[in-house]
Structure formats: structure tokens, C-alpha cells
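Record pair follows.
FIRST:
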Amino acid sequence: MIPDFSLPIARYRLRLRALTPIQFPAYAGSTWRGAFGHALRRTVCITREPDCRQCLLWRSCVYSQVFETPAGHGPLLEKINAAPHPYIMQPLATSGQHYAPGEVFSLELSLLGAAIGHLPYLIHAMQQVGERGIGKGDGRYALVAVEQEVAPGAGEWAQIQAAGGSLQALVGVVPLIPPMPERVQVRLLTPLRLLQEGTPIRSSRFTFQLFINALMRRISLLHAYHAEVELPGDFKALSQQAAAVTLGNADLRWHEWSRYSNRQQNHVQMGGLVGSFTLELAGLEDFWPWLWLGQWVHAGKGAVMGMGGYALDCYTGEKAI
């Protein structure tokens, strides 16, 4: 049974031109997230309250809705104290890169659900990041253009804004679930960080059950918070079914990196798994829609910084489809 997914997704590509030398760290997701958050708060905050939770506008402010999404109410939401955020930054293109003045580079950004309507604020915030500087030495950049993927995964991009021009954004699209292939290879493109009782899951303890549980939880919460839809399903039964699924050709390794947390005033370890594994999908029809949709929303911790990104290579027999 295909779940009634109704979370629209929009993917954007910001084309940026370096104005001064810019140097990014080996994994730039945390750098982009921090700079974006500060710029967005400066852009939209009108009360200047030091603690957003004490502000009368907390639950309606663009900054809190996007960057510090308040926990909500209801059966699905009342047990958690932190909501998933409705954006994902794709840092790979800039990670570890150095750009000279005049060079053009790109940052990809995905928005989910109601956050798609906040795009103008987010573009303005990213322009502010460029003016204030980012990376080692606070390198500055200018926004050249904004492109949007016509549909998630289509690979066709349309320019929706040029520098100084009007914004002509497309609507968000709910990804269509294609027919299930016989087999998939799951390629973990960015570190997948899963925790069990606070302990990171390394390759020796990684299972399909842990992976799919994290994915179903994230997708369900994203729907509840950002599409106001509660996805029905017997998730306990699905988890038990997943426990019997074995991984094929598992080639997983641990990738360690750390980020500096301003909140904790310390470096925080953010390592995760990269590599690949295969799944024979016969009998796994109930999991296929979740696996497919997960490519656009990522899985595990640090998804907003681009962690937990994966892609599916689909096969029927020995032929890739």
C-alpha cells in the first residue's frame, strides 16, 4: 500500500560569484547552516527578543518556522521536544573548495511543505550571507541567479530569478512513486548518522530496520509539522518486518567530522556512515515508497546540513533502470 504522501518539495540551486577569496572546510554543511541561520534571524526578526521562545511571534515567525521549528501538539507530536526543520542544504559542491574572485559556484537548497512559501525571505538571507562573508576569512560572494528543479529528481532546471530581477518561483511538487524494481543499491552520499540510546550506529551494528525506522519517523514528522497531515500505518508491524531484512553487498565505512557548536561552545562529533548496500525488494513492497521518498528528505541526524543524503540505483535483472 502506497502511503498518501502529500509533502510538496522544491529544490533550488543558487548560483553565486565569489567577490573575494572563499575557502570552505572539508564538510561545509555546518558552515552554511550557521551563516544562513544568523542571516535569516537578522532578516525577519522585528522584536529583537534574545530568546525566540519568549517572543509573541514565536509560532508564526518565518525564522522560527524554518530554523527553530517549535514542537507542536497532537498524538504524533506531543512526545518530542524538537521538530524537524523544513529545509535541507546540499554542501558537497562547496565542501573543501577554494574559490578565487570571479569564480561562480553553486549551493543547492531544498524546501519542504509550507516553507516553500518563505523562499523570498530565504533568498534574501543568503544574499546577506554573501555580503557579510562566509568560510575562512569571511569570503564574500554575490547572488548571480536562482534555479529551480522542475520536479524532484527530474534533472531539469529552470531559472526563476536573475540578479536584481523578479522571482518567478514554481510550485512545490510531491514526488511520484515509480513501480518497484527487483533490486536497489542504496548509495549513502553524505554521512548517515543514526543513534541508538545516544550511541552512534557504526557499520557493525547497522541494519535495515534501524535505517527504515529513522526514515519513516522523519517522513511522518515532516508531514505532521509541515503539511499538517498524519500518515496512517502500523509502524510497529513494519519495524518488526524490517528486522528480518538482510543487507547485500554492504560496503559501509565511518566518516568522522566535527563542527563547532555556538550553543555548546565546543566541537561536536558528527561522524556517520558512507558507502553502499543492496536490497532485494521482493516482499518489501510496503517499504518501497518510503525508500524512494527518502532520497529527497534525507535520513538521520544533521539532515538540514546535508547529512544522510542517499540515492537509489534501481535494477531489474542485471539491467539498470
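SECOND:
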Amino acid sequence: MSPFIPHLILRDIFLYLSSEDSSIALSALHSCMLVNHHWCSNAVPIYWSKPFRHTSASLINTFLHSLSSSERDAITRVHDISLPTTKPYHNYPLYLRDFDYWAFMKSIKAYIAKATMTTTKGNESNTLNGARGRRRETHKSDYENLRHVMSTEIMKMFIRVGVKLYHLRVLTWEDQLDSNEYLLLLQPELHSLLTPVRELEIAACYQKSVFLSSLAKICRNILSMHLTLANWGSPEDNGKAEMLGLSELIKAQNSLTRIQFWTFRHYGANIGYVLEAIQTQAEFLTDIHFHDVNFTATKPLNNIAACYNLERLTLKGCDLNGSAVSPLLYARFPRLGRVEG
């Protein structure tokens, strides 16, 4: 029998393992849940606070156990798919704090592919070549509807059990989600899942103007934003709509304290809309980070100079000229302790 270790010490150890985000650390944390009941009760809430650190069909299978009968029926009405019905030992969804939406949607696709693999192969083997293509098209549409309904019902279940999200990631840089998939997150019945969010990460190389402006109406308590927007998808307007959407999101926050911009190189003068929005958060912002941002077409950075509570300012790999940076040279930042360039 393992020696007894107090709850607070175990918690610190498990939090450290969770913060590593490496496969070895996560495997160690998972093993800790198997030691005894005391270790398990301390490790489970930490492990399941951010389960979507990788794509996994088994994660979706675990969450499906927590569906209500009406949520399960909504899924099976779309497609006759076998769903788990037994109640889980722990209320795993309740612990969710960090939600990676890309990994969530990819995990759902993996689960559906695994669950329907045998049926799909059987259907295709009994069709002629001409009918096979039509059947595949039908399946593609059916499975898309199934993904949408399954993701919606699981997120509704998160709300029902009382999930309080802290960190939301919408990362679609390498493997794009289509517009319908990420806009699912903005359905009216899911708004209460997003309103508690305090940390937001978005990375995309295509337009998200509708997503950003819609998110501004839902999330108003964000403290930290990490934004990577490359504007490769709309050269015709130089990303004006996207910058206006981001401007709305920044202005909507009650007390934004930290914001990071990465690869904002191709927005030209439209970055000015975001700079104006930043000034509305001047009282609260303590950390502003610009990386690979082109300021040569913007007005002088008076908006940044107005953020008098800054403790850290970073301008890395940015295109600047003397007129743009001059307001920063004469601004008063009594709390500024670190400047990086």
C-alpha cells in the first residue's frame, strides 16, 4: 500500500504534470489515477480539466456516457449509431476548463469514422460502381449532419452539467475546419457555455470576421487574447472586415489585461481599427505583445501610448518607422518593467 500523501501536495504534483503538456507527463498523470482512490479523486479533476490536448475518439466515447436520453435521441435520429448508455464512475464533463475546439471536432470525426467503419464498408461492397459514388455522397452529407448534431448535443450536455470554461482555443491553422463547423460554436443555445471564458486563443489563415463579431456579443469577460491571423484569404479588402470584427471583440471586453498579436503582416492600414479598440482597454491592459506586425501604413501608435498601466510591451519582428513609434518614446509608463524588441 502506498504511503498517504496529503491532498494539497498531490494536487500540486498533478498540476505540475498537467502543465507540462508532454505525452510522458500526461501518461504519468493518467497512471496516477490508477494508484488508489485517494490519488484518483485528486488526479481526475486535473486530468479532465483539459482533455483535448490531442485528437482522440476515446475522449468522445467517455463524454457520450454522460448524455441524457433526449440528447442521445437527438443524435440517433440523425443516424442509427450505437451510443454508450452506462453512467460513468466520475462526472468527467464537469471538470472541463480548457476547451480546444479544433481537437474536439477532430475527435468527433475520429469517433464517427470508427463507429461507422464496418457499416460503411458493408454498404459499399454490395453496390455497383455507379451507385457507389452516389451512396458515398449521401454518406458524406449524413455524416456531416451527424458530426454537427453530436458536437452540439455534447456541448449542450456541458452546459447542463455545469461546465465553467476558462480557456477556449479555436485553432484551425494547419487543418481547416469549414465555416459551418466553427460557427456551430455560436449557436444561441450554446452561448452560456462561452460567456465564462477568460482566455481566448484564435489562429487562422482565413477570414473569421463573422466569427469574431459574433463572439463579441457572447464573450465579455476575456482577460487574455492570443491571436494569430495571417489574412491570406481576402486580399481584395486587405482584411478590413476581419479587423473590424476583431475590433468589436476587443471593445466588448470588461477588463482585458493581456493581448498578443502574431503574423498581422498583411492588413495594411486596417490594423488601425484594432489599435483604436486597444485604447478602449487602456485602463486594464498590462501586457501587449506584437510579433511580425506591419505598422508602416498605420498612424502613430498613440493608442498604445495611452495604455498607462502597461507592465510589459513587446514589438518583435515588426515593421516600424520613426513617426509610428515616436509616441511610445515620450509616453509615461510608470509600471513598465520589461520592453522587448
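COMMENT: The two ends are 55 Å apart (CA to CA).
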